[in-house]
Design a protein that fits this description.
CATH topology of the largest domain in chain A: Glycerol-3-phosphate (1)-acyltransferase
Helix content of chain B: 25-40%
Mean pLDDT of chain A: 88
Distance between the termini of chain A: 30 Å
Shape of chain A: globular
Strand content of chain A: 5-15%
Number of helices of chain A: 25
Helix content of chain A: 40-55%
Radius of gyration of chain A: 26 Å
Distance between the termini of chain B: 44 Å
Number of helices of chain B: 19
Largest sheet of chain A: 9 strands, mixed
Oligomer: heterodimer
CATH class of the largest domain in chain A: Alpha Beta
Radius of gyration of chain B: 24 Å
Number of domains of chain A: 3
Number of strands of chain B: 21
Structural class of chain B: alpha+beta
CATH architecture of the largest domain in chain A: 3-Layer(aba) Sandwich
Largest sheet of chain B: 7 strands, antiparallel
């Protein structure tokens, strides 16, 4: 089947994006109660096998798959199958949702009230809704929203209810279940709960995957989960987790359904409810445990203005058309389909590619506000800017972002100064204007605090700002990597630049959404975009910076600077400070205090390395590249460092060492 | 059908009668003037008389059969002046009858219009457009010396240039013909004739393509366009005798050119049958069955062709291959019969076969069961297979085919029958709550002695009841089987009105039956849409055979091609996609149609590289010069 459903990623601007409708507008003009109680009759999947939420459990427990695993576990553990069966039933009880319309109506009512208070607009692309409605009728559908806030899944159900669409069942983390009453209410609004980790628990996996697959096969409801696995605290997309995606693909790969449609959904918040919470979390203040009382305390957010939300329902992506020519489904012909098997290499890489593709689609349809552009500029000018100069540069950046296909929500017909000012007003806790000069508010200037606390406060502000800048990184990341590569490469020779690019890409593949194996495509895309913005000229063998390209390249390099520095600092830590007994647990605090020391000594100005997210990403990059290895001693995991390797990575990142080995067979 | 005794006396008399009747029969019809056909008949070692022996198939087939469609020239569907459908001729139960609901069904299903949109065929073969035969003179000289009849007339050659694939029939109807056709046709009358022909072919490097019934639907009979040698079509139709019957072992030695209906009729006269009844048995030949691994409707009792043959004699370029005894089973390495079964004419010509025979069953009874939906029907068939109590034949038709079967009901003469039909419908839909757009029908055929049949019938109906099936009478069942033979004629009707149609089949494990049926149908619908077919296609399937470990599924697929530039190309793309879908869903490349040229591309995937290499090395040894050069299979 031709993959007409996918559009070229090369130039997202070519595709016309849909317009938005504000769904709060109608709510502000009519009765909320009437809305919550209105007739709800969604369009259902044409192959639906009607069944109640409770019957699902029986189907799952009686499935061949679960039976098989029960017997297997029973044989391995020596327990009687009955007992294992009982265990399975308990797992399912703990997991299963109890979707009931009355609870949904309650949420519809309560959320309307809350949304109207804290948000100006909730905008949805209605064409996307129409496409979704059609998809739901034709095929089992999987909804894949981006994940930036706790709000996401309530918001999703809210929107679907508003448009009279089938309500989804949602895979949620177990942590929600701990919340009194709320946990049960979420369950009744369609959430089902999964343990955070159950590696090696065959029975759990069997029950869980069969539960999801049963709902998919029967067309019970659209299945919703977050590809990123958890909320992104940094506002840039997280590398996708593949577990659930593997599960929802299986019914197609095994021929149990004709097709499954994946719907990428991008939810962009102008201001995230958890903004400063995230920054603190990244700095090591532990995440508060989800509790009902905590939620009640969070009521204060009701008095603030969080701007608007944009929800973009992307084009449904047919797994069948994606798999065409990539997966040989007949691999499943020789073993009964209910016997669980590890996915083949081919399947794994297909699932992985699909996951990245969907996350990129999510990224591409993220709506970006002017503030995101402004903060990107402000972060590169820590000493502040004249308001007029900020406005001018913001306009310039708007042009560049649009050239690169960004989805900007820039108010029509408003003078740029006004746009800048109103953005500043909304984010007044992050930036301030004094005497015509705009600067970021970096920590409260209190003299009573210790210098370390001052660093912490500054870091909170900077990380909050960075989280806005991060929203636009996906637009610039490829050209920016190329810009850095051009700076690091010994010459302007294309293959040398490619080598540098490929190294950087590899280094940062946990940091940004860069699909493994797509190096050549990414390089070509980067060249194309830089060429398109007139920043470089592609000659036969060389890539040459144009005169007017200098500023673009330096902006792009500046955009990645915190990452380049941060990664080098961690490498430096490994080379200078780490000892053989460094445990994995100790790693983050140790790096943090190393960085704080550097900052206090005035040797480091980059605060972003304090973020545990970056620290984790560096570690996994180093592990991936074999410069650090994990060794299990007793019940402790310690990190073994190959200092030579780490050192050379650090120097290569800093452009002090040429990138080794040519990898450009296809250029 | 009833016969009450099996005593040896009866058999002796029967055998005697058989010989006498065979003699008479063979003298029957012989309307063919041997114009253009030279040579004399073989004087081979045969039990009966050889004089003017003739089966149903004359040398000049085109005189009784359509040159550009299915079956006998006198039998076809048409819409008469009143716009009603009727089936012409006298040969079938349906012949001469009016089918009042066919037109509506046809128009509604395909969006066709019987009055306005016609796509008539070229009336006759344009012989002048045919390239002159590329004859090998030396071969011709030697062949003449043997006295074996041959011809290089245009209509003889064209008739043997094709089977019954859609693209073949379509090309004929359009008058486009084929890129390559046989250069001559020869009619051996016995094994020795074949030996002579093959020897001469080897000597003069001539390509030989065996031709049996000509009912292939895999492109197996097409001549490879790149073949530059003289192509000789070896028509086996005149090798059609039963050489002997061995009643002690219940086997018969039969020449491989005999066609199904003749074989069955001749055996019936002696009180025997083979029980091998493929849907094409009116025209397909014993040799063709062996060469394609054919399957018969009643295989549950009698077995498929590989279960039925005891000995095969085959003439190859290396010489004659035959087992030295008729032991019922042997452990002598891989069974050499299996190199020939399914070889599709690539290794040699099957000339004689010893085949199992059975006394004609004492009692036969049709039956049918209505199920609320296809899922229930499949579950029932699976259970029947599990209990190993499948009747001689059991077939499950999906809802589309049920509706289609309805459209083929002849005009009911009495008001009473009409009334009864109405009552039945009321009972099933209103009383039992079956949805006419969901329900499906299984047709059954029981055979054996009367008591056992009745007992068996009860067992099957009891199982059906467990799956919500309701017995729906003998008539419905019988009609299902009668339709088997006339259904093939319907494609020609469709082709008159812009509708192309084809069938294909597969076999699949039980647990995959439903998934495969659903996915393949859906794939067809989508592919049609994507390729610009303007009308909703008809996709329909039925489960036609049950096995211990799976079932055979038969698909029908048709669409209205008005508005398409290249309907056949579109059709082929869709069929290809459907086959991909079948393979992806655990179905086989073919259950009984074979591979031919149509499905060659999937052979490697189907049997592995090594498997294909084995087959290739057999071909290389047996036929190093590719004398049997039809290029099927490999």
């Amino acid at each position: 089947m031709a993959s007409t459903t996918l559009y070229s990623q090369r130039d997202p601007m070519l595709k016309k994006r849909d317009g938005f409708e504000d769904i709060l507008e109608e709510r502000r003009n009519s009765s909320d109660l009437k809305y919550a109680l209105r007739c709800y009759a969604p369009v259902l999947y044409k192959g639906l096998t009607p069944c109640k939420a409770n019957m699902l459990k029986n189907i799952v427990l009686q499935s061949d798959h679960v039976h098989y695993v029960i017997n297997q576990v029973s044989q391995e553990s020596g327990e009687a199958p009955d007992i294992i069966h009982e265990e399975a039933s308990v797992i399912l009880e703990e997991m299963a949702h109890r979707l009931t319309i009355s609870t949904v109506r309650f949420f519809a009512f309560a959320l309307t009230k809350a949304f109207k208070t804290i948000f100006q607009h909730v905008c949805v692309n209605e064409e996307g809704i129409q496409r979704l409605q059609q998809a739901i009728q034709e095929h089992p559908v999987v909804l894949l929203p981006s994940h930036r806030s706790y709000m996401d899944f309530l918001l999703m159900s809210y929107i679907l209810y508003t448009y009279d669409l089938a309500l989804p069942v949602i895979a949620a983390g177990m942590d929600f279940m701990g919340m009194k009453i709320i946990g049960e209410m979420l369950r009744m609004s369609g959430a089902f709960f999964i343990r955070r980790s159950f590696a090696g628990d065959k029975l759990y996996w069997a029950v869980f995957s069969e539960y999801v697959k049963t709902m998919l096969r029967n067309g019970f409801a659209p299945i919703e989960f977050f590809l990123e696995g958890t909320r992104s605290r940094t506002c840039k997309s997280l590398t996708p987790k593949l577990g659930l995606l593997n599960i929802v693909m299986e019914p197609f790969l095994k021929g149990e359904v004709f097709d499954v449609h994946l719907v990428p959904i991008s939810i962009s918040y102008e201001r995230i409810l958890e903004e400063s919470l995230y920054a603190r979390e990244l700095l090591g203040v532990p995440k508060p445990k989800e509790s009902t009382s905590g939620l009640l305390k969070a009521r204060r957010i009701l008095s603030e203005n969080y701007g608007s939300i944009h929800v973009y329902f992307g084009q449904p992506v047919s797994i069948r058309s994606l798999a065409q020519g990539k997966v040989n489904r007949s691999k499943h012909n020789l073993v009964p389909r209910h016997i669980p098997r590890k996915p083949t290499k081919e399947t794994q890489s297909f699932v992985n590619d699909t996951a990245y593709r969907i996350v990129r689609l999510q990224e591409n349809n993220m709506v970006l506000k002017p503030w995101v552009l402004m903060v990107s500029i402000l972060l590169q000018n820590p000493e502040g800017l004249e308001l007029s100069s900020l406005a001018e540069q913001t306009l310039w950046l708007r042009g560049l972002a649009q050239t690169y296909g960004a989805f900007l929500d820039w108010p029509d017909h408003a003078p740029s100064a006004k746009v800048v000012l109103s953005s500043l007003a909304l984010h007044r806790d992050l930036a301030c204007v004094s005497r015509g000069r705009v600067s970021l508010v970096l920590g409260e200037p209190q003299c009573s605090v210790s210098s370390e606390e001052a660093v912490f406060n500054r870091a909170v502000s900077l990380l909050s700002c960075a989280s806005y800048r991060n929203q636009i990184l996906h637009v610039f990341v490829r050209p920016a990597l190329l810009a850095v590569a051009m700076g690091n490469a010994a010459s302007s020779k294309k293959d040398e630049v490619y080598n540098c690019f490929s190294f950087l890409r590899k280094m940062f593949s946990d940091e940004f959404i860069l699909c493994p194996g797509d190096t050549v495509q990414d390089f070509e895309e980067a060249c194309y975009l830089l060429g398109k913005s007139g920043s470089v000229q592609m000659l036969q063998q060389n890539i040459v910076v144009t005169d007017r390209g200098q500023s673009t390249l330096s902006f792009l390099t500046g955009l990645l600077e915190p990452y380049l520095q941060g990664y080098q600092v961690v490498c430096q830590y490994f080379c200078e400070e780490s000892c053989d007994s460094l445990t994995e647990k100790r790693y983050i605090p140790a790096v943090r205090s190393f960085a704080v020391k550097l900052i206090l000594a005035g040797n480091l100005r980059c605060y972003e390395v304090l973020s545990s997210d970056m620290q984790k990403n560096v570690l996994s990059a180093l592990l991936r590249m074999g410069a650090v290895t994990k060794v299990k001693i007793a019940d402790q995991v310690t990190l073994r460092v190959n200092k030579l390797a780490v050192n050379s990575l650090e120097d290569t990142l800093g452009g002090r060492l040429p990138t080794q080995k040519a990898v450009l067979a296809r250029l | 059908m009833a016969s009450n005794s099996n005593s040896s006396e009866r058999q002796r008399i029967a055998q005697q009668r058989l010989r006498v009747i065979t003699g008479h029969l063979l003298k029957r019809e012989d309307p063919v003037a041997d114009s253009g056909v030279t040579g004399t008949h073989c004087k081979a070692e045969a039990a009966g008389s050889n004089e003017a022996k003739k089966g149903t198939v004359p040398k000049k087939r085109q005189e009784i059969m359509k040159w550009n469609g299915w079956g006998y020239s006198d039998s076809k569907f048409l819409f008469n002046k009143k716009g009603q459908a009727e089936f012409t001729g006298k040969r079938y139960r349906l012949s001469g009858m009016i089918l009042p609901s066919l037109k509506d069904w046809f128009e509604n299903t395909f969006g066709a219009n019987v009055k306005q949109h016609k796509s008539p065929a070229t009336p006759s073969l344009n012989a002048s457009a045919l390239p002159a035969p590329n004859l090998n003179d030396a071969f011709l000289q030697d062949l003449k010396a043997t006295g074996i009849p041959f011809s290089h007339e245009a209509d003889d050659r064209v008739f043997r240039a094709h089977g019954h694939c859609l693209h073949e029939i379509f090309a004929l109807r359009e008058g486009r013909g084929f890129q390559r056709v046989p250069d001559m046709v020869t009619w051996p009358s016995c094994h020795n004739d074949v030996v002579k022909i093959v020897e001469l072919a080897c000597k003069h490097n001539v390509c030989v393509i065996p031709f049996g019934g000509g009912t292939s639907v895999t492109g197996a009979l097409e001549c490879p366009p790149e073949e530059t040698r003289c192509i000789v079509s070896l028509d086996t139709s005149q090798m059609n005798r039963i050489l002997w019957i061995d009643e002690k072992n219940l086997v018969a030695r039969v020449e491989a050119g005999i066609i199904g209906q003749d074989l069955e009729r001749l055996l019936n006269e002696g009180g025997y049958c083979t029980g091998h009844e493929p849907d094409s048995m009116e025209f397909s030949s014993l040799g063709g069955w062996v060469a394609t691994r054919a399957s018969g409707m009643k295989k549950n009792i009698y077995g498929n062709i590989e279960d039925l043959v005891v000995n095969i004699k085959v003439v190859t370029p290396r010489g004659v291959m035959e087992k030295s005894c008729q032991g019922p089973r042997m452990s002598t390495g891989p069974d050499i019969h299996h190199f020939i079964l399914g070889s599709e004419g690539t290794l040699g010509v099957v000339t004689e076969v010893t085949m199992k025979i059975r006394p004609i069953p004492e009692y036969q009874k049709y039956g049918s069961v209505v199920f609320p939906n296809f899922e229930a029907g499949v579950a029932c068939l699976r259970e029947v297979a599990r209990q190993r109590c499948a009747p001689a034949s059991i077939r499950l038709m999906d809802n589309e085919q049920f509706q289609f079967g309805h459209a083929l009901k002849p005009q009911v003469s009495s008001i009473f029958t009409n009334f009864v039909e109405g009552l039945k419908k009321f009972y099933i839909t209103k009383f039992k709550g079956f949805d006419t757009n969901q329900l499906c029908v299984a047709t059954l055929l029981f055979e054996g002695d009367r008591d056992k049949v009745l007992q068996h019938e009860k067992q099957v109906y009891d199982i059906a009841a467990k799956f919500g099936g309701l017995a729906a009478g003998e008539d419905n069942g019988q009609r299902g089987y009668i339709l088997t033979f006339v259904i093939a004629y319907l494609r020609d009707l469709g082709l008159e009105y812009y509708v192309v149609a084809e069938s294909f089949e597969t076999s699949v494990p039980w647990d995959r039956v439903l998934d495969l049926c659903r996915n393949v149908k859906e794939r067809i619908v989508r592919e049609c849409k994507e390729r610009g077919v303007q009308f909703q296609p008809l996709t329909s399937c039925r489960v036609t055979q049950t096995y211990d470990a799976g079932a055979c599924i038969y698909f029908y697929f048709a669409f209205n091609y008005r508005g398409l530039a290249e309907p056949v190309h579109t059709y082929e793309q869709v069929e290809r996609a459907a086959r991909d879908e079948i393979l992806a869903n655990g179905g086989s490349l073919s259950h009984h149609h074979g591979v031919g040229k149509l499905r060659k591309e999937w052979m490697k995937e189907s049997v592995s590289n090594v498997g294909l290499g084995m087959l290739r090395s057999v071909k290389d040894y047996v036929d190093p010069d590719n004398i049997f050069g039809n290029r099927n299979l490999l």
